[in-house]
Amino acid sequence: MPAKQALTGAEAIAYAMKQINPDVVAAYPITPQTPVVEYFAKYVADGVVDTEMIPVESEHSAMSACVGAAAAGARAFTATAAVGLALMHEIVYIAASLRLPIVMAVANRALSGPINIHCDHSDAMAERDSGWIQLWAENVQEAYDFTVMAYRIGEHPDVRLPVMINFDGFIISHGVEVLETLDDDVVKSFVGKPIKMYSLLDTEHPVTYGPLDLYDYYFEHKRQQIEAMKHVPKVFKQVAEEFEKISGRKYDLVEEYMTDDAEYIMIALGSTAGTIKHTIKELRAEGKKVGLVKPWVFRPFPKFELQRILNGRKGVIVLDRSASFGAEAPLYEAVKSALYEVAVRPQLGSYVYGLGGRDITPAHIRQAFEDAFKGYLIADEERYLGLRE
Amino acid sequence: MPELKGWKELPIGGLIVEPGNAKQYKTGTWRVLRPVYQPENCIHCMQCWLYCPDQAIVVEIVDGKPKMRGYNYYYCKGCGLCANVCPKSTDPKTKQPAPEEKRAIVMRPETDFAEE
Fold first, then answer.
1. Domains in chain B, ordered, with CATH?
2. What ipTM was estimated for this complex?
């Protein structure tokens, strides 16, 4: 029977990993990720999982150990945040390039400097072109659910890509929420045995990982990665459908909230979507036709879904929890680009918020919606919510 | 060099799934200088075969003894070690470089063979 539990996001992810029982977990502590592997280390110490836990000397080594383990045919997991993810950067690309379905939870935190430990999305955005599938959780429940789903997506023979589960640092990682967890045996049979391909330990079929790949073949291998990403939407939907059968919870590439008749739509990643839903309810009570689109999947970018949903709306407001210095913010840039070909382009507005953990309130969200109601969205102007001028 | 494959035909991730496939790599395309064998001067001492860093010296066993039979230009990178160690490259009296017509191996610019 599904059980209600009160857990932090970090505990929920560790709990899902306990149920999955991966072969290898290699990790290095960093705020606010640390409790994920801390809770998991307890499962290892208590003998409730068979996992080989490798406490490494840096995040660069954590991802390197995961690459080695995954190439050997093991299910590998790590978790990190911010500068830890940045230190991994080199191997993050290698994991995707070698097509290893590693799963990594990222407790999103602002990149230094000046040093800051609180939530924003600059860490994950720095890896958006690394070739990882990026899932974005709004709350503890979604962080748990995505962890259960991740290996099924990444290990699929048409995909073979690593999966990053983003969950906002502190807000989700340390916030206790009630969630519904599945039974161990249900998770076990859903996740199944690892789908192994080209395992180094399969000595009957020897294989070389990581040979020099120059101008004669590198380009073709990048094209294969591009193709693998194109297969993700189909595979994600299949896995989500199966997941719905065991959980009753429905996932898609994007979540639509009160969009059916919405004239104005806000788009945001992660926990802020919850605050937006709250504000939308208030605005709906005042008769405003507003809605939310929350990408559950940011890489691959759900372009066609956004084109279908946003075409013909009056206004679209994109909230970014990271800046792109000298260019448009990453989510906004992608949404704006997606809307180039739609028949009836909505007014578009870009709002950067919440950098370094700056709080975002319903008042800020209302402020952005008010701009839209007044027809005062300017596509080439970046605005800031909660910033002191 | 084997024919270059398109992205749909290749194993993913740059993986090499066929052990020993380096033999398909035509390293001879790297060659700038070509060793040319002059069999009439060869004493079949096999120094060239011993020193060749690849396996570019073609050897035939005749009556239990090895005979130099020229080069495998598919692999020969033109490093010139064979010509350097060949005893026929040096005049035994003067210890100076032997005249070309007396050598067993002569290094020639690859451009001389551009029409081949």
1. 25-113 (3.30.70.20)
2. 0.89
